[in-house]
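Protocol step 6 of 9: fold each sequence in the batch and record its structure tokens directly after the sequence line. For illustration, a two-sequence batch is reproduced in full.

Sequence one:
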Amino acid sequence: MKDINIFCFGFGEVAKNFIKKLSIENYSISLTTTSRSESSKETFKGINYNNYLFNSEKFDQNLLVKLKEADHILVSIPPKNQEDLVVKNFSNFIESSKVKWITYLSATSVYGDHKGEWVNENSKTNPISYNGVSRLKAESSWTFLEKNNKLPVQIFRLSGIYSDEKNILVRLKLGNVKLIKKRDHYFSRIHVDDIVNILFKSLSKFKSGEVYNLSDDKPSSFEEVTLFGAKLLNIKDIEKIEIDEIKNEMMKNFYNESKKVSNKKVKNYFNYNLKFPSYIEGLNHIRNNFI
């Protein structure tokens, strides 16, 4: 049984599924997490752990002891005011720790709009959304630490995440989906199981200073994915709206950007075959097992 002492800044869907994967793989897990709620003792999948308060205004000082003890750090919290809160508050502590694996979860919004063309890790980053700009600045702060302080950092740029619990099929059943037609609008997605499997592979094949795109093999339009999901559920009528009727800012940004995100680097380096190569396999799996 392998031991791992992991500190998770943020404990959302990806982090929880990663810990679940470590447990399945028979790791002995020492876990510490942060959240915006008050510090507490928690249990997850039989693992007792400390959750510490950490937000943009303050943090529980007790987390510093646990942070120094960690040999692995997973950062999944978003930037605040275009700053990475972990770098801002804890870079000195991390520099003097014995950590051997730091993973920062970024987003493919750093690429901005590429008019539906393919992007890879060497493509120009030209974010046009506030979130994209913030993510790129956060990446830069981690890259600076890696280069100047010899910290072991890798960056994963995540495409749109879906899971067995959160996906287009659930939203369709709830009637929360509106169909918007836009020609040549492409985006990429990735099932959380594939993110977690790649994170796990990186434990034994870690290369500091690298950036990887995490996406599936089939960039597609939202319309294509939605109509496929509707067909699986035998839903005939979906409300249609025009692009200029969109009120939600995040959704507006989504339609301002079009790109196909290449996953060749991550698949080749980690010698990984996707569990769900496209939304077709992913949604069929969800429909057959959870809906």
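Sequence two, same batch, same settings:
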Amino acid sequence: MTIAFTKSHGAGNDFVLIADLDDRLGLLDAKLVAALCDRHQGVGADGLIRIAPSRAAEFFMDYYNADGGVAEMCGNGIRCLAKYVADRGIATGETMRVDTRAGVKELVLYRGADGLVDRVRVDMGAPILERAGIPVGGIGDPLHVPVSVDGASYDAACLSMGNPHAVIFVDRLAGVPVESHGPAIERAEQFPAKTNVEFTEVLSQDAVRVRVWERGVGETQACGTGACATAVAANLRGLTGREVAVHMPGGTLDISWTPETVFLTGPVVEAFEGTFDETAHHFGEL
């Protein structure tokens, strides 16, 4: 079967989008997802999104990490979904509700001079700060979880934005071995469901710089839930205010944490469209 796809990104965090509004594909095979996300023999992406119908909202975001594993939520990916359906007239209006494995999210769409969506605000919901809900093993304050890897000791601020995060504050990002310490922290025994890891340098009361090691993916150019988790952790640690610009390698995400919820606002771009044959093992025809 030949399936059409669109390649999109939010601040460099990139995705393969497949519209399955009739729900004929159903849950996707992990090997197929991993093959599509492969940057050498597939399309190449940090994750894959199947846009499916939902009884609870206008659409369901069936999200997969690049390794083929199912994930709960993706703040950058859901903005890409919104642009896809809005720009094609599948959805109308300036607001949208999208169902995810972390619940229904409400979105506000902003259009550029060409009439196409170029920024989206997502109501990400309230952070989860209890160990069991994150989840994090052990006892004590989840905002101060000791993690030791390769002889280095970190004081991780842990919380969930629908998926688990461990925020690591450092004096300077330069020189931090993200490529080795990221996967080690992701799989540390404290995190029964693994975790996303945000290495964070605080720049001011309203700005931070972050490199993200994403669970099941590796280092990514940006992470929406990670930006939210970082902003919440920084505020709770007394390092920033409640409105924070989170600078990541792929771009800047703007986070606002109100008493009720966390809002994420950021850019969204479509790169190209194509088709693939799901029976092709190496996708060489792409």
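Proceed to step 7 once all outputs are recorded. Observation for sequence two: The chain has four helices and 17 strands.
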